[in-house]
Amino acid sequence: MTGQVLPYDVHGEGPGRALVLHNWFGDRTSFAPLRAHLDGAVGTYAFVDCRGYGEALDHAGAYTMEEVAADALAVADDLGWDSFSVIGHSMGGKAAQLMLLDAPERIRSIIGVSPVSAAGFPLDGETWELFAGAADEPANRRAIIDNTTGGRYDDAWLSALVDRSVTRSSATAFRAYLDSWSRTDFHERVRDNPAPVLLVVGAHDPALGSEAMEATWLRWYPNARLEVLKDAGHYAPEETPQALAEAIEAFLGA
């Protein structure tokens, strides 16, 4: 698959190059709190909008993880990066693994922030209806965000995430990506992959927390390690940006 150079912007000029992929509910602006804590002398970070999100809102596509991976590699080509790490939040973590499979000689390491595994995230019955209906129902998005952050945030915080999600994503893309990140399974292709992997999860994330990592990523990547942020749920870039920045920079620096 041939990718497109999608809208992106770069933070920092340090030696640790990393391409950053956002989650299902956020475009690249969802990393703004994290960027405030990243040391530009340590790393160079390229933040990308997936098709149907942010400044790529009107970019047509198949809206699959394979397409996200190809587009991200096209951005790396545009930057002239021959090798780099990939930071993927939630669904971005699944796309990062496809990048590793497509270009193993280029991907130095993966940092997964509450990342979806290569096996996807099966959803059945009422839960599937909740997620599938979130494309058109802001109330569904709110319920999902509230649940995956442990029900710890007030109305204003939840409303801000929902409003951004609705205004900065295409309902068509949002719905299509769900099928790709939740229902496709390529975990046999990544089994025993030697790439260095850092998994950063929130203690208050009931969906993609430490138990989910132990059942998936940590079984398949022999050089993976897990770090749990005690004050975060599923949205560490916004909930605990300083702690996440410290974990990222320590890993890239090593």
UniProtKB/TrEMBL annotation:
<dbReference type="GO" id="GO:0016787">
    <property type="term" value="F:hydrolase activity"/>
</dbReference>
<keyword id="KW-0378">Hydrolase</keyword>
<feature type="domain" description="AB hydrolase-1">
    <location>
        <begin position="19"/>
        <end position="239"/>
    </location>
</feature>
<protein>
    <submittedName>
        <fullName>Alpha/beta hydrolase</fullName>
    </submittedName>
</protein>
<dbReference type="InterPro" id="IPR050266">
    <property type="entry name" value="AB_hydrolase_sf"/>
</dbReference>
<dbReference type="Pfam" id="PF00561">
    <property type="entry name" value="Abhydrolase_1"/>
</dbReference>
<dbReference type="InterPro" id="IPR000073">
    <property type="entry name" value="AB_hydrolase_1"/>
</dbReference>
<dbReference type="InterPro" id="IPR029058">
    <property type="entry name" value="AB_hydrolase_fold"/>
</dbReference>
